[in-house]
Amino acid sequence: MSTSPAAEAAKSLSGVAAEAARRRTFAIISHPDAGKTTLTEHLLLAGGAIRAAGAVRARGENRRTRSDWMKIERERGISVSASVMTFDHDGKMFNLLDTPGHEDFSEDTYRTLTAADAAVMVLDAAKGIEPQTLKLFEVCRLRDIPIVTFINKMDREAQDPFELLDEIASKLALDPAPLYWPAGSGGRFKGMVDLRGQRFIPFSKPSEQQDGHPDPVPMGGNSLAAFLDEAERAEMEEGAMLVQEASKPFDPQAFLEGHMTPVIFGSALRHFGVDELLAVIGAYAPPPKAVAATKNGAETKVEPGDKEVTGFVFKVQANMDPNHRDRIAFLKLCSGRFQRGMKLKVQNTGKQLSVNAPTMFFASDRELAEDAFAGDVIGIPNHGVLRVGDSLSESGTLRFQGLPNFAPEILQRVRVKDPLKAKHLKKALESLAEEGVTQLFRPTLGADFIVGAVGQLQFEVMADRLANEYQLEVIFEPSPYAEARWIIGERADLEDFAGKHRTAMAVDIDEQPVFLGKSAWEIGYVAERFPKVRFDRSKERA
Ligand code: G4P
């Protein structure tokens, strides 16, 4: 008996919702050096996406030797480009969004976090919560992103685990719910108890480690004696008992609401605790959720199982492949079943594009995506059509709440050494600003450009990219400005304000008016005198 077209449609729709429900899209947040790169690699290993540790770095090195883009990345040993890696494991499709670790690139990281449905917070067991961890945690909290905590480097001398949990509770106002409890640390690290399964998971020292760690053994039995002496066992059992009395039991709902974080101890480098971490993400991290949007001006919610294909661009990256001058826009899908060759429209420009060569970033290499669902990230090669914050959909009428542009903290004037190349400079600066690398302001008076960035290193990266990709030698000079504010208000009020502050007015890349202040004090002063004008530190992309 053949099914009706309506029944077929309903079936495929539930398929769309089911596919979305098995997505786990997450990012790793940490302070530099806590072990994010190592953990990324070992998560890919745990997920079966790569076969041997060392592959992530090796691939990175390869890429770098083929191109000298991001020389800085190599020279400074930091990762400045975010990417996404996808792997199918244990019935779930994991999308791991990689974020740069250096604080100068936090804006990029913030943007990437807008595409994450969950985050893993990596702490160095000897250091606890460090400044960058705190900053990124705050972004996650703002966006209600649930957090799983991985306390790394247990194979080194660590802080007392109770102190680490206290720090999470007091600094982050988050209830830590340990799912495992460690036995010792450093040279005395013996493994951990699975507090819910009443198993002991032994850790073997690198010198004794051949094919991974020994299999877990039940607590209580004699088999524990093979791994722990009496004193170690007593200490671990006492700790496990105490921590269970002192902390709230893990509540998945409290985790989803952002009040509680499950805690796992481990060693990324020794591949310990990583399988458990992946299992926790698979079991408890949320699938993509409904997203607030407007459709033809009316407020609506886009459900992951909705038929229409929709998504938003959270990152644009140029020249990922040195052989092609391509620019890849990373689109986080919010609903529907995306299929290759599909036509999508950009809401704010009305432009339509046929997505014939979308890429998905499987850990092994880039691959063409045949289909993708809510939660997935696809890379769309394009030539400047797509910008960070763009909403894409089949109808072209949907707009997701814009991604904020963060207020730049340093403003510098940029000049090209060869004056004949001024026009060329304008184009190059606009491209980089479209990517979201930096912000660009064109003062109403004069011919200079002012570039805004969150940190000093961004200027170096920019100069490097201008030289390598656009053959432009540039000089950054101090500008008289310290603060940029987007001005919002009635047209007449804005015109009045702009007319009185002509020398300090500029426009951003979308021609929106920006006031450049010499100090925070000056901003406060003018804001008081022009109460009808709002001075925003960041803007939602129109
Ligand atoms: P990041 O991306 O967060 O900046 O950290 P990354 O993974 O690069 O790790 C920083 C350093 O910490 C690396 O050592 C790495 O090997 C080490 N590390 C990461 N996880 C663990 C762990 O679980 N145990 C121990 N003992 N070390 C760990 P490095 O000496 O800076 O680099 P490398 O020369 O080892 O590559």
Automatic annotation (TrEMBL):
Residue ranges of every copy of the Tr-type G domain listed in the record: 21-289
GO cellular component, one term: cytosol
InterPro entries named among the record's database cross-references: EF-G-like_DII, EFG_III/V, G_TR_CS, P-loop_NTPase, PrfC, RF3_C, RF3_dom_3_sf, RF3_GTP-bd
Compartment(s) of residence: Cytoplasm
GO MF entries: GTP binding; GTPase activity; guanosine tetraphosphate binding; translation release factor activity, codon nonspecific; translation release factor activity, codon specific
Keyword Repressor recorded: no
Residues annotated as binding GTP: 30-37, 98-102, 152-155
Keyword Endoplasmic reticulum: no
GO biological process, one term: regulation of translational termination
Record key words, sorted: Cytoplasm, GTP-binding, Nucleotide-binding, Protein biosynthesis
Family label: Belongs to the TRAFAC class translation factor GTPase superfamily. Classic translation factor GTPase family. PrfC subfamily.
UniProt function note: Increases the formation of ribosomal termination complexes and stimulates activities of RF-1 and RF-2. It binds guanine nucleotides and has strong preference for UGA stop codons. It may interact directly with the ribosome. The stimulation of RF-1 and RF-2 is significantly reduced by GTP and GDP, but not by GMP.
Protein name: Peptide chain release factor 3
UniProt gene name: prfC
